[in-house]
């Protein structure tokens, strides 16, 4: 029985706004996808990687990973899809029957520590079929209704406003990260049903655990790590560089 890690790297990185896809942007002279792959491979609990590549760039992505001496597990590269959910589904389709545990991790979180990877896999192997790392939320989060036009008689620039519809108790909120870990059969069923809903006009899921929740199956949370922050904008590149050092902690 083996653990397969799906590493999503097919996004374009629109919000980062560089001239290469985000996963190929470098920190400390290495592409983000290589940093992420090093930590997955270095965890000692991942047997193989499937990486989703921007369409048409699979050869390039495979090359940078093959050239890295610290990515010491077999790597397959597949073309990603139009959404993250579709990319994960494409990678899941090449999982083998022996891959009983599947991790899904974002190249956009290149410095998720090996210890976090081990924590997630250990929880799945202990019998939890869907596991996410989570950290407490520091902001107060509000839900809002759709934006309404501003009243015409107001002073200052016209802008759309939203109406607050609720304030969930902060103590019970968690910001969830990747890698998320799953029993492969459960994740495959969650993606099959998620794809059917996406066809029926639902938005694509932003994480895999959400698809499992939609089945009514339990998802458990293990402690996350601030080093697993997601790189979205240029500001995050500065923060991420703080964690670029040790691939094995
Ligand atoms: N991803 C993917 N396939 C897609 C879209 C995203 O594999 N069609 C991956 C990204 O490469 C990233 C992760 O999903 O590792 C999280 O996505 P996000 O942070 O949104 O990255 P991008 O989609 O590349 O960025 P942006 O939304 O700013 O364009
Ligand atoms: Mg995106």
From TrEMBL:
<feature type="site" description="Transition state stabilizer">
    <location>
        <position position="15"/>
    </location>
</feature>
<dbReference type="GO" id="GO:0019288">
    <property type="term" value="P:isopentenyl diphosphate biosynthetic process, methylerythritol 4-phosphate pathway"/>
</dbReference>
<dbReference type="GO" id="GO:0050518">
    <property type="term" value="F:2-C-methyl-D-erythritol 4-phosphate cytidylyltransferase activity"/>
</dbReference>
<feature type="site" description="Transition state stabilizer">
    <location>
        <position position="22"/>
    </location>
</feature>
<dbReference type="Pfam" id="PF01128">
    <property type="entry name" value="IspD"/>
</dbReference>
<feature type="site" description="Positions MEP for the nucleophilic attack">
    <location>
        <position position="170"/>
    </location>
</feature>
<dbReference type="InterPro" id="IPR029044">
    <property type="entry name" value="Nucleotide-diphossugar_trans"/>
</dbReference>
<comment type="pathway">
    <text>Isoprenoid biosynthesis; isopentenyl diphosphate biosynthesis via DXP pathway; isopentenyl diphosphate from 1-deoxy-D-xylulose 5-phosphate: step 2/6.</text>
</comment>
<dbReference type="InterPro" id="IPR034683">
    <property type="entry name" value="IspD/TarI"/>
</dbReference>
<feature type="site" description="Positions MEP for the nucleophilic attack">
    <location>
        <position position="230"/>
    </location>
</feature>
<protein>
    <recommendedName>
        <fullName>2-C-methyl-D-erythritol 4-phosphate cytidylyltransferase</fullName>
        <ecNumber>2.7.7.60</ecNumber>
    </recommendedName>
</protein>
<dbReference type="InterPro" id="IPR018294">
    <property type="entry name" value="ISPD_synthase_CS"/>
</dbReference>
<dbReference type="InterPro" id="IPR001228">
    <property type="entry name" value="IspD"/>
</dbReference>
<comment type="function">
    <text>Catalyzes the formation of 4-diphosphocytidyl-2-C-methyl-D-erythritol from CTP and 2-C-methyl-D-erythritol 4-phosphate (MEP).</text>
</comment>
<comment type="similarity">
    <text>Belongs to the IspD/TarI cytidylyltransferase family. IspD subfamily.</text>
</comment>
<keyword id="KW-0414">Isoprene biosynthesis</keyword>
<dbReference type="InterPro" id="IPR050088">
    <property type="entry name" value="IspD/TarI_cytidylyltransf_bact"/>
</dbReference>
<keyword id="KW-0548">Nucleotidyltransferase</keyword>
<keyword id="KW-0808">Transferase</keyword>
């Amino acid at each position: 029985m083996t653990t397969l890690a799906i590493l999503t790297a097919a996004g374009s990185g629109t919000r980062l706004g560089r001239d290469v896809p985000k996963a190929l942007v470098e920190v400390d002279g290495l592409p983000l996808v290589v940093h992420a792959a090093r930590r997955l491979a270095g965890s000692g609990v991942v047997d193989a990687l499937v990486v989703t590549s921007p369409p048409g760039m699979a050869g390039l992505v495979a090359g940078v990973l093959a050239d890295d001496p610290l990515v010491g597990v077999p790597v397959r590269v597949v073309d990603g899809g139009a959404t993250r959910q579709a990319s994960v589904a494409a990678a899941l389709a090449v999982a083998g029957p022996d891959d009983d545990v599947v991790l899904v991790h974002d190249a956009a979180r290149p410095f998720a520590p090996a210890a976090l990877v081990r924590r997630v896999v250990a929880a799945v192997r202990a019998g939890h079929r869907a596991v996410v790392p989570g950290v407490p939320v520091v902001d107060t989060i509000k839900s809002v209704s759709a934006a309404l036009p501003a009243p015409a008689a107001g002073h200052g620039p016209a802008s759309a406003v939203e109406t607050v519809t609720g304030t969930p108790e902060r103590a019970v909120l968690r910001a969830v990260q990747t890698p998320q870990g799953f029993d492969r059969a459960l994740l495959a069923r969650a993606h099959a049903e998620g794809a059917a809903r996406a066809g029926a006009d639902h938005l694509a899921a932003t994480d895999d655990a959400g698809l499992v929740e939609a089945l009514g199956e339990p998802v458990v949370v293990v402690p996350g790590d601030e080093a697993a922050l997601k790189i979205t904008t240029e500001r995050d590149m500065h923060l991420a560089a703080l964690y670029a050092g040790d691939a094995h902690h």
